[in-house]
Design a protein that fits this description.
Elements (H helix, E strand, L loop, with lengths): L1 E3 L2 E11 L5 E12 L6 H16 L6 E2 L3 H13 L5 H19 L9 H13 L4 H20 L18 H9 L4 H11 L2 H15 L10 H8 L1
Parallel strand pairs: 2-4
Antiparallel strand pairs: 1-2, 2-3
Length: 228
């Protein structure tokens, strides 16, 4: 435990799974907080002990240092490819090489976050790629990370936590603007267009969304006049 530039820095050893599968001990350092937040060394030591408890008691499994490319090429693809058709094999390899490896290939699996994946998906939609084209890499990425989770290399699958827009223009605009739901995008869109256009959009939505009336509705006033 050291104090540098008004922050507490902790140093400790952590077991990691290497590329070969062997467990090795690696030295880590982490900033616990500022001296203002943690005024005494004793408080800093207690905070560190709390953070290391899961490691000391064996609750936390060793993290993997394997990169996405490493895992996919050496472990996932050799198991999956023999079960696929030739065209699907080529598709998977293309998606990894063109869409996933450039951004995440050399990154350790444990360092791939939900926000990083979400940023990649949004960037690809903004670049002009179609909904279907972007959905393909996301689905494949989620499958690879689910396998890594099953192999206990990562605690959870970050791709599963991402949001993907619904198909169609509204969904694409939602992704480009970074809205959490299509309803937010719709409200922003309706407030940004002229009143006549708003009315037209609302009328179409009413026709599509509101429950349809039965075809046996009777206009009693008109019927009364006809009878008379």
């Amino acid at each position: 435990m050291v104090k540098r530039k008004k922050v507490w820095i902790a140093r400790f050893c952590e077991d990691v799974v290497g590329a070969s599968g062997a467990i090795a001990s690696v030295r880590r350092s982490a900033v616990l907080g500022s001296v203002t937040e943690i005024p005494t060394r004793r408080q800093a030591e207690l905070l560190l002990a709390e953070r290391l408890r899961s490691i000391d008691y064996g609750i936390q499994r060793p993290n993997s240092s394997r990169s996405l490319r490493d895992y996919a090429e050496a472990y996932w693809l050799p198991v999956v490819l023999p079960t696929l058709k030739h065209s699907t094999k080529k598709y998977y390899q293309y998606m990894l090489r063109v869409h996933l490896y450039p951004e995440f290939g050399n990154l350790q699996l444990r360092l791939i976050t939900r926000d990083a994946v979400q940023s990649l998906l949004s960037a690809k939609l903004r670049s002009g790629l179609s909904w279907r084209t972007v959905k393909g890499p996301r689905t494949l990425f989620g499958t690879v990370m689910a396998a890594a989770e099953a192999d206990e290399l990562i605690p959870s699958n970050p791709v599963r936590k991402t949001r993907f827009p619904r198909r169609g223009p509204l969904g694409t605009v939602q992704a480009l603007l970074g809205h959490s739901s299509s309803e937010i995008t719709r409200e922003v869109y309706l407030h940004s267009i002229p009143a006549d256009a708003q009315a037209a959009v609302q009328k179409v939505e009413d026709l599509l969304i509101r429950p349809k009336l039965t075809q046996n509705v009777v206009d009693w006033k008109t019927a009364s006049r006809l009878i008379q």
